[in-house]
Amino acid sequence: MSGTGLFLTFEGIDGSGKSTQARRLAETLRAAGHDVVLTREPGGSPGAEEIRRLVLEGDPDRWSAETEILLFTAARRDHLERTIEPALAAGRVVICDRFADSTRMYQGLSRGDLRQLVDQLHALMIGREPDLTLLIDMDPETGLSRAKGRQGSEERFEDFGPELQQRMRAGFLDLAREYAHRFRIIDGNRDMDSVAADVTEIVLTHLTRTR
Ligand code: ADP
Ligand code: TYD
Predict the structure, then answer these.
(1) What's the 19 CA to ligand 1 centre distance in angstroms?
(2) In a designed cystine with 62, which of 12, 58, 75, 158 is the match (CB 3.0 to 4.6 A)?
């Protein structure tokens, strides 16, 4: 692990409230005097934002699962080199809306079992895990209706439908058991303030334990 900063990620199905909670956590930590970088995947650097458009827009079958793994990993490598690593090296708190766990789920599980390929490429090209991952767990039907309510062109994955979201939810819960040391599960089926209160408590507890 390079640098002395803190690397936090939010994970969960589409519409679970990750972006909302990431934004609120950034505000809370900034108010407490922390130097925070709020970022997201796919994206978070100019090159990775260009790749974002390639992977999130267009037909659901635009890319094969294997090509998609390469594109998401390429975006992540650029994001890591240009945004995440420099911020951590400068001692900042990086809050990232999705990271490699999303690839383990979406590309690793959605079209056959490609988890091993995802993990191999991750080990080769990324080689870093977050210090803490906040999994916002929630009912996929509610998540999907929230996500659909946003109206946009980034719908390739949302178009896969509720059955995929159901599998992603179960997969994320399995992943939380696999990486139990860094995952915390938060019940997202509640109002934003209650979810935010849990997020704040978990992160502040982690900060006081590790600093
Ligand atoms: P994600 O980033 O996980 O897809 P967002 O934070 O973008 O989720 O939230 C999706 C939609 O649901 C947004 O319109 C947001 O305002 C709304 N939302 C987020 N959290 C809650 C909540 N706890 N209760 C009700 N609506 C929420
Ligand atoms: P995001 O903008 O976080 O969508 P949402 O706010 O709806 O959760 O991510 C866009 C989509 O990209 C989302 O459906 C999941 C997908 N995705 C992958 O398939 N693999 C990945 O590695 C990442 C980071 C995202």
Answers:
(1) 7
(2) 58
> Is there a domain that residue 81 lies in?
yes
Residue 14 lies in a domain: yes
CATH of the domain at 131: 3.40.50.300
Ligand 1 atom with the smallest distance to the CA of 13 is 3
- Residue 12 included in any domain: yes
pLDDT, one tens digit per residue, over 139-155 is 998 887 887 777 676 76
What's the rounded Cα separation, in Å, for the pair 167 and 205? 31
* 39 Cβ closer than 6 Å to some ligand 1 atom: no
Residue nearest to atom 17 of ligand 2 (CA): 102
Q: How far is the CA of 125 from the centre of ligand 1 (A)?
A: 32
Ligand 2 centre to CA of 178 (Å) is 21
Its pTM surpasses 0.90:
yes
| Averaged pLDDT of the chain | 93
- pLDDT higher than threshold 60 for residue 2: no
Residue 1 lies in a domain: no
Domain extent at residue 80: 6-210
Instruction: Report d(CA 71, CA 181) in Å as an integer.
Output: 28
pLDDT band (50, 70, 90) for residue 110: confident
